[in-house]
Design goal:
There is one protein chain. The protein is α+β, with helices and mostly antiparallel strands and 176 residues long. The chain has one domain. 26% of the residues lie in helices and 35% in strands. The chain has 5 helices and 9 strands; from the N terminus they run αββαββββαββααβ. The chain has helices spanning 5-21, 55-62, 113-119, 149-157, 159-162, and strands at 32-41, 44-51, 67-75, 82-91, 96-101, 107-110, 122-126, 136-142, 169-171. The strands form 2 sheets. The protein has a 6-stranded antiparallel β-sheet with strand order 6-5-4-3-8-9. Strand 4 and strand 5 (96-101) form a beta hairpin. The longest helix has 17 residues, at 5-21. It is globular, with a radius of gyration of 20 Å. It starts with a helix and ends in a 5-residue tail after the last strand.
């Protein structure tokens, strides 16, 4: 009466491709931009950035689900790149928002989400080893793989609501 098993696989593959084809990343708004990078000390960078969180992201955070911002640093001296992560979290019991650097455990608390988002305009990231004089490149992205399993699939299928990725920003350590 019908289709054999291989036909169903082909049909389901085509249906999934059509579904995912409507999720073009080119249609997503730019929500992240790194503006300035400067050396704050011999072992840290100060990043001035502009991050715009969607309503879905803010609701997720307000419901106590942590969001992670992943920074990728590539050094100009061909040293292996390194990553840093900042975790944003709301704690309903203590009614405070937290920003925690996973590299060194620095934890800052805020009473309002607006204060947390304002603090993200300028962050300090510790780095391993000395910062080369020639600078490097840095980018930031919302880590969708760190979301709980029930949110991951919708997050990947709705890039207009969940995509927060900056273009790479090149800087020179000689910049003021």
């Amino acid at each position: 009466m019908g289709f054999s098993m291989p036909c169903w696989r082909v049909a389901s593959t085509l249906a999934m491709a059509a579904l995912l084809g409507g999720c073009g990343l080119g249609e997503t708004p730019e929500r992240a931009e790194i503006l300035v990078v400067r050396r704050a000390a011999s072992d840290s960078l100060e990043i001035t950035q502009q991050l715009r969180f969607s309503e879905h992201m803010r609701e997720t955070l307000d419901n106590g689900i942590p969001l992670r911002l992943a920074y990728r640093i590539d050094w100009c001296d061909r040293r292996r790149g390194e990553g840093q992560v900042i975790e944003l979290r709301y704690s309903p019991l203590s009614r405070d928002y937290r920003m925690r650097r996973l590299a060194d455990g620095e934890d800052r608390r805020f009473s309002r989400s607006s204060a947390l988002f304002a603090a993200l305009d300028r962050v300090r990231l510790p780095v391993k080893g000395d910062i080369p004089d020639c600078g490097g490149q840095i980018s930031v992205a919302l880590d969708l793989t760190s979301l709980p399993t029930p949110l991951r699939f919708p997050a990947f299928l709705e890039p207009s609501q969940w995509r927060l990725v900056s273009p790479e920003h090149a800087w020179s350590a000689a910049q003021p």
